[in-house]
Amino acid sequence: MQKNIVAAPQLAEEGKQKIEWVKRNMPILQQIETDFLEQQYFRGLRVLVCIHLEAKTAYLVQVFASGGAEVAVTGSNPHSTKDDVAAALAAEGLHVYARYGATPEEMRQYMNLALDLKPHILIDDGGDIVELLHTDRKDLLAEVLGACEETTTGVLRAKARAKAGQLEFPVVLINDARCKYLFDNYHGTGQSVWDGVMRTTNLVISGKTVVIIGYGWCGKGCAERAQGLGANVIICEVDPVKAADALMHGLRVMPMSEAAQQGDIFLTVTGNKHVIRKEHFSQMKNGAIICNAGHFKIELDLEALRSMAVEQKEMRHNISGFLMTDGRWLNLLGDGDLVNITCADGHPAEIMDTSFALQALSGKFVALNHEDLSPDVHRVPDDIDEEVARLKLKGSGVCIDELLPEQIEYLEGWEE
Fold first, then answer.
1. Cα 296–chain centre separation
2. DSSP calls for 84-147
3. 407, 389, 376, 404: which is closest to 166 by C-alpha?
4. pLDDT number for residue 168
5. Do the beta carbons of residue 40 and residue 77 sit within 8 Å?
6. For the chain, what percentages of helix, strand and coil (3-state, to nearest 5) are there?
7. Burial of 322 (0-12, 13-18, 19+ CB in 10 A)
8. Do residues 282 and 258 touch, judged by C-beta distance below 8 A?
9. What gap in Å lies between CA 278 and CA 41, rounded to an integer?
10. How confident is the model at residue 185 (pLDDT cuts 50, 70, 90)?
11. CA distance linking residue 159 with residue 167, whole number of Å
12. d(Cα 179, Cα 187) in Å, to the nearest integer?
């Protein structure tokens, strides 16, 4: 198989420096790496990692390699790959297939090249690798022991395939673990989205009306941070429980048909398609900013936006302006890709430490228990979730109380 495809091998040293920086700030993975080095859980196994290829992902890749795995890595989004980081991994002798700005056709080619490794364990983000194995690369299914899925979109796809009885191997749902959504989705997305928006626009958030479509854990985190930055926040939802929750958090809740007229900044975080459409674009204010933090840009109907525009031009790096027939300009950030990664550096290292610890330990779980796992979707075992939290506290120098025997007895009984 072809060894690697990277855009700028001369940037390897710069990429190495970035990886070393995040490593210093990821104490959970450091502890896991020590264990993997000693126990070699992945010796003789091949692991494919398809996640946003930046420095924090690179460290996760190194951790799998430290456990004895032969690793292939590719990016899950064309605008989140950092060419210097990819070069650094390639310089270490890993199989790397990724470059910034790859076309959809090239992305598929790179994923297929990574699959040529004939992986046993898949670390996926968005479900593209799982999808390829069920369509174009069925010849490799016999090699697969299982997969671990990072994000909401991939979880939805895996659950749908399992419900239809068409999932050919076990998939562990990383995104449904408490140490994922309570840290990554809530705190990580909440910070990194506004980092991306502010870096790219150099505009103030305070005083603006922010419309957030989707009030799951990501939406909640983004809404809280927007409030903290002084924004007036509107939530658009289809789930009545989530909508009621937003209302109880002091947020305005309304249909997108109403919010479209009021928003200054629009953010999608749903995992669904076309939640902002032609009828919404037609009502937006002049100068409105549109961005997406869902895994795929399909959350925005970009074909409709482009068809409505009489002119399109780059207003600033990572900002595309669309001139409407009535003279309004609408501004799209990062071409509709994930604004927190395309326009910034993604989640902070301390946040991805918990998420990637779940990936590493769940990969180990698949390696050691695959014979007992049915071809279905599986929750992250509670002991893994709790182990990540314990390692998080240990790495932060924090101790907590433990229940006394009499307290355990009280909680487990009913007599007293």
1. 10
2. HHHHHHHHTT-EEE--TT--HHHHHHHHHHHHTT--SEEEESSSHHHHHHHTTTGGGGGG--EE
3. 376
4. 97
5. no
6. 50, 15, 35
7. buried
8. no
9. 51
10. very high
11. 9
12. 11
What is the rounded CA–CA span in Å between residue 273 and residue 119? Answer: 30
> How far is Cα 222 from Cα 266, in angstroms, rounded to an integer?
11
Element (H, E) at 330: strand 329-333
**What are the backbone angles phi and psi of residue 330, rounded to the nearest 5°?**
-110, 135
What pLDDT is recorded for position 78?
86
- Dist CA 275 CA 260 (whole Å): 11
Structure tokens, 199 = 């870096």
Tokens of 358: 């779940």
Please enumerate in sequence order all residues whose Cβ is within 8 A of that of 382, keeping only pairs 6 or more positions apart, or say none: none
Average pLDDT over residues 24-36: 97
The proportion of the chain whose per-residue pLDDT surpasses 90, expressed as a percent, equals 93
**Distance, CA of 173 to CA of 190 (rounded, Å):** 21
Q: Is the pLDDT of residue 1 over 80?
A: no
Tokens of 65: 């390699």
Spatial strand order of the sheet with 171-173 comes to 4-5, 95-97, 70-74, 46-50, 121-124, 146-149, 171-173, 377-379
| 3-class state of residue 82 by DSSP | coil
Residue 297 half-sphere exposure, CB side, CA atoms within 13 Å? 21
In the block, tokens 């390699």 appear at 65
